[in-house]
């Protein structure tokens, strides 16, 4: 996997941990090892701009996902379903995180900024792989999978 993190937020973020998490999620999801992913970490002003420009909603949000390859037959995202042959490599796209928003949400949830960034990064990757949560069944599937991925991550997560 080629996973690149670009931190433009002005906030210290454990980039190595984000790369390890993303690699774990992509591996668990059966994504081709040659797939590429970009993680961009931005401040609230930049996230507000992206949120307004692409989603038409004011203010910063916690995570945005911008897929690069369209979903196409044969695994254009690099993801595969049970029983499929390994999917073609793909440029998955960008996951954009805002650590300032993650800090607020992590504090409210009682698990801190780093755990919130891990959750948001996983969530963003699932969006890149074609998952959504607009409908109740989609929500159940996506958040169930997100929970499973985070649980498996906690079992292998490097300790500092």
From TrEMBL:
Binds 1 zinc ion. Its main location: cytoplasm. Zn(2+) binds at residues 123, 127, 133. Its EC number is 3.1.-.-. InterPro entries: MetalPrtase_cat_dom_sf_prd, YbeY, YbeY_CS. It is found in: Cytoplasm. Single strand-specific metallo-endoribonuclease involved in late-stage 70S ribosome quality control and in maturation of the 3' terminus of the 16S rRNA. NCBIfam families: rRNA maturation RNase YbeY (TIGR00043). This is Endoribonuclease YbeY.
């Amino acid at each position: 996997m080629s996973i690149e993190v670009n931190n433009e937020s002005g906030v210290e973020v454990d980039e190595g941990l984000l790369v390890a998490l993303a690699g774990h999620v992509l591996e668990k999801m059966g994504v081709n090892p040659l797939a590429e992913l970009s993680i961009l970490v931005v401040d609230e002003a930049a996230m507000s701009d992206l949120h307004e420009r692409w989603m038409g909603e004011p203010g910063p949000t916690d995570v945005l996902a911008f897929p690069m390859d369209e979903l196409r037959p044969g695994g254009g995202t690099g993801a595969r379903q049970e029983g499929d042959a390994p999917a073609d490599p793909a440029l998955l796209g960008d996951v954009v995180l805002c650590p300032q928003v993650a800090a607020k949400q992590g504090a409210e949830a009682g698990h801190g900024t780093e755990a919130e960034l891990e959750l948001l990064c996983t969530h963003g990757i699932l969006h890149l792989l074609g998952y959504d949560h607009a409908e109740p069944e989609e929500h159940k599937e996506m958040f169930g999978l997100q929970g499973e991925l985070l649980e498996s991550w906690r079992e292998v997560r490097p300790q500092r």
